[in-house]
């Protein structure tokens, strides 16, 4: 079974600065997908960014980018120019490319943004 | 475009009571899921469905039942509520093709006392 680990329960960043959230995963599969989800106080789960394991290029979405290290099974999220609205829980998630499309989530990192 | 809709948003149950959490999606997604999120934890999969008439257990299915009679609806049933089922429950759906994101409902906060 796959596992996803987020080793930082809480992180804080100054507004306009850059922060990196860590995620490692364990799998024996070669084809899979990785995601970062944001959960603000409203509880809505919002997709931030996705990465296909077969792609070497790191995904980027505006201020959000990932550092995907397949051999190390690491998938960190970098948030540049942090904004107050970035404050939320962030969950790393893994999904096999096989049947079911089930997501396995990490335990989450609470990000605080200081004005 | 409603997406994934869950009802109710909040509920308090007494031990031993039963209830059904409703979930409906209007995106014609084949895959639907129920997750629970305990305080400070990630989401754990309870049950999932790959299409109408097909359901399967996830990581933490005990104490729950599901049905999928239509593509749109995927209700989650708690038969004998226990305090361990106090959690926030999320329904989600996705397309059956690869790389699609999962769309989540807004969650149901359930307290069993």
What do you see in this structure?
The complex is a heterodimer of chains A (115) and B (113). Chain A has strands at 3-5, 10-14, 19-21, 24-26, 32-39, 46-52, 60-61, 64-69, 74-79, 88-96, 103-105, 109-114. Chain A contains no helices and twelve strands. The termini of chain A are far apart. In chain A, strands 2, 5, 6, 10, 11 and 12 form a six-stranded mixed beta sheet that branches. Chain A has 115 residues and is mostly beta strands. Chain B has 113 residues and is mostly beta strands. In chain B, the strands form two sheets. In chain B, strands 2, 4, 5, 6, 9, 10 and 11 form a seven-stranded mixed beta sheet that branches. Chain B is globular. The N and C termini of chain B lie far apart (36 Å). The interface between A and B is medium-sized, with 24 and 26 residues.
Helix content of chain A: under 10%
Report the sheet-strand fraction of chain B: over 45%
Number of helices of chain A: 0
Total count of strands of chain A: 12
Most residues in contact, chain pair and counts: A-B, 24 and 26 residues
Describe the protein's topology.
The complex is a heterodimer of chains A (115) and B (113).
Chain A: E1 3-5, E2 10-14, E3 19-21, E4 24-26, E5 32-39, E6 46-52, E7 60-61, E8 64-69, E9 74-79, E10 88-96, E11 103-105, E12 109-114
Parallel strand pairs in A: 2-12
Antiparallel strand pairs in A: 1-4, 3-9, 5-6, 5-10, 7-8, 8-9, 10-11, 10-12
Chain B: E1 4-7, E2 10-13, E3 19-25, E4 31-37, E5 43-51, E6 54-57, E7 64-66, E8 76-78, E9 87-94, E10 103-104, E11 108-112
Parallel strand pairs in B: 2-11
Antiparallel strand pairs in B: 1-3, 3-8, 4-5, 4-9, 5-6, 7-8, 9-10, 9-11
